[in-house]
Amino acid sequence: MSERTYPPTPEFVRGANVQGMDGYRDLFNLAEAQPEKFWGDLAEKEIFWFEKWSHVFEWNPPFVKWFVGGKTNVSYNCLDRHLTTSRKNKLAILWEGEPGDQRMITYQELHRLVCRFANALKGRGLKTGDRAVIYMPMVPELPVALLACARLGIIHSVVFGGFSAEALKARIQDLDAQVVITADGGWRRGKEVRLKPAVDEALIECPTVKHVIVYRRTGSETAMQEGRDHWWHTLDEGVSEVCPAEPLDSETPLFVLYTSGTTGKPKGIVHTTGGYILQATLSMKWVFDLHEEDTYWCTADIGWVTGHTYIVYGPLSAGATSVMYEGAPDFPQFDRFWRIVDKYKVNIFYTSPTAIRAFVKQGDQWPKMHDLSSLRLLGSVGEPINPAAWEWYHKVIGGERCPIVDTWWQTETGSIMIAPMPGAVPLKPGSGTLPMPGVLADVVDLSGKPVEVNREGFLIMRRPWPSMFRTLWRDPQRYEENYWKRIPGNYLTGDAARRDADGYYWILGRIDDVMNVSGHRLSTMELESALVRHPAVAEAAVVGKPHEITGQAVVAFVTLKKGAWDHDTLGEELRKWVAHEIGSFAKPEQIRFSDTLPKTRSGKIMRRLLREIVTTNSVTGDVTTLEDLGVLTKLAAQHDDE
Ligand code: WT7
Question: Residues 105-142: pLDDT tens digits?
């Protein structure tokens, strides 16, 4: 347990949006004692409403509504409301492509792009409640597409560009999407990543899709299907720049984002309008301490929730200038991020522990090549940050002057839940510190009773919060069973945690069969189902192995069907197979072949044992050797029948 604490400097406190522990406690206590007043006042102050709500929330566990009867529009809050202020010609997006191209887009210009594209969507007959699947590189047209959908109440679902055609197809089908918005490709490590061919492959079995809109990014040869496919630039040519934002009910679905659960099928997390935009906006001010003059940069991809809330909706609603970068951190060399920080004089920088550990490994010479003195606040998200990486980030990147906000949240929570307010809360490396005002977290045992100080337990939420997900797409039953049944009436996060004597939260990792690789959630079951779809595979068991950079790495134990298999070539083939079924980011680091898998008498695979094998086995050696798990299986069956 690292016990060195880092209180904010008096200078930081003086300029902060929330000052000192008293500032934090006042907000927290008010939210706890009078949630209706707390959230109602903030919603009125921070958000534009076409029509005010009749009551602040309606809680029929496990279903909640926020700002009931209110009418607003997320796109209006991100754009239109700034146009009558000094933000009209302020930069909204400072974009840099991987090859070095740049675009600087003001709020007014972004508004124009969004209105034109929204009119193009309308022109295709798309309307409130329809579904758009978005599969794009990190170009400004990606936020434009999101905001245009939000403007009309079209539900968007962004599929990360690293997902395969198979994964894309499954999501399009689950949503019965009417439109797919994509691009010819994008740039990554100097190479073109093609996107449109994957869309074509996916759409062979997606009869609901009537339109495909293709943004031209790389300019490479792209097949277009007459009648179905349209170039973005021809569609929005000559369309009107006037497109009023629809006044939408506060509970209108804004987006569905798929994430991995404990079964083979990803879950469609449904977020709605009013509550989501309120907390996205507030956390920019509370956690990132956003000031009007700041340049802010979140390095995530918009394909994950971090990019939704902290590249698109939060920063734009809060009126920030935000940097957006298309490519890889190591292209053309390992100083790219620091070059960008220096060039645009970034003040607030938000990235993942995996990225930080990769930088640590490459050495201090890369950040030292650049002037990083513009930075005043650093952030971390996606997985626990180990104290050594924290200290490096603090010293080498932050020059020992920048607080680090370690932000705990999930796709389901919509916005940051546990994190320090940087002008208030003393930091402890490795801890997300304290919950946000209005977030009533707890660490409990299976009966729902709080565990003692420093004891491990389940991290839960006792009350609903405005930006929480509302359900799983077309599966309210799974929503209820997954999250609300174990400890009735409380939201089960799926994480284990402990709380120290100061009430600080320390996240200990997942309690379910979900892995965290580079801050991306991967499901054991999803990987296993992908593997057994391969004709050679009889059975598969997947576990996470601690990894120096990515936190965890995927190791798959595989038993084969009868036949003469060449383990050397099959290992690589199976890795490629997973890339085909899910996406290349999900490729197992190792495939280990075995005659049997350790099981309980009732037939459940004992992943715990496999996890032990991969963790303690220091020499992994030849990954293609056949493991003899037979002995282990017998032993296990005698001693363990969980
Ligand atoms: C899971 C959520 C929303 C962020 C992107 C990932 C882990 C996230 C932290 C953190 C320790 C963290 C948890 C959580 N996680 N942030 N600061 N410290 N663990 O979103 O894919 O929905 O994954 O990521 O295990 O449950 P996600």
Answer: 999 999 999 999 999 999 999 999 999 999 999 999 99
End-to-end CA distance of the chain: 31
- Integer Cα distance of 400 and 402 in angstroms: 6
DSSP 334-353: TTHHHHHHHHHT-SEEEE-H
- Is the CB of 308 within 6 Å of ligand 1? no
Q: Are 214 and 220 in contact (CB under 8 A)?
A: no
CATH superfamily of domain region 514-641: ANL, C-terminal domain (3.30.300.30)
Task: Please count the other Cβ atoms lying within 10 Å of the Cβ belonging to residue 462.
Answer: 14
Read off the pLDDT of residues 544-599 as tens digits, 9 standing for 90 and up. Answer: 999 999 999 999 999 999 888 888 899 999 999 999 999 999 999 999 998 888 88
The response to whether residue 305 sits with its C-beta less than 6 Å from ligand 1 reads: yes
Task: Pull the structure tokens for residue 415.
Answer: 């916005």
Query: Relative to the CA of 519, which ligand 1 atom is closest?
Result: 6
DSSP per-residue string spanning 188-249 = ETTEEEE-HHHHHHHHTT-TT--EEEEE-SS-------TTTEEEHHHHTTT--S--PPP-EE
Q: Where in the chain is the domain with CATH 3.40.50.980?
A: 106-249
User: Which atom in ligand 1 lies closest to the alpha carbon of residue 309?
Assistant: 3
Residue 458 to residue 444: CA distance in whole angstroms: 5
Under 8 Å CB-to-CB from 377, ≥6 apart: which residues?
288, 289, 347, 348, 349, 402, 403, 405, 422
The answer to whether the CB of 386 falls within 8 A of the CB of 353 is: yes
CATH 3.30.300.30 domain residues, the chain: 514-641
Q: How far is the C-alpha of 70 from the C-alpha of 277, rounded, in Å?
A: 13
Give yes or no for residue 259 CB within 6 A of ligand 1.
yes
Burial of 204 from C-beta contacts in 10 A (0-12 / 13-18 / 19+): exposed
Q: Under CATH, which number does the domain 106-249 receive? A: 3.40.50.980
